[in-house]
Amino acid sequence: MGSNGLTSARHDIFAYYLAEKYPESFDPSISGDLVYSGKLRLTDMIKELKIDAGKLVLSPPAPMRLSLRRFLNQCGKIFTVWYIGSGGGQTKNYALY
Questions:
Q1: Which residues are paired to 45 by β-bridges?
Q2: How many other β-carbons are positioned within 10 Å of the β-carbon of residue 11?
Q3: CA pair distance 36, 8, nearest whole angstrom
Q4: Which residue from 6, 36, 40 is spatially nearest to 20, judged by alpha carbons?
Q5: Quick one: DSSP state of residue 43?
Q6: Domains by residue range for the chain, with CATH
């Protein structure tokens, strides 16, 4: 999943247990009914795709996969991919610095 609303989508998809396990993953000033209000766990399998929900959300979106495939075909190797989002994720990583 790749979108400017990735944080919102994550909170709409995944269940509240993540808020308890990772309280640093959201702004505590957000209304509690908006924090991880979905039903899925990270390890819930998406049967049609044969992948768990956590891996599915982290997989690159189709346009990015196509670009990476073209690049690999021309250059042969990729050592690092840096995907910059603008959805406020940088402000939530303060505890990591």
A1: 52
A2: 20
A3: 9
A4: 36
A5: T
A6: 6-96 (3.90.650.10)
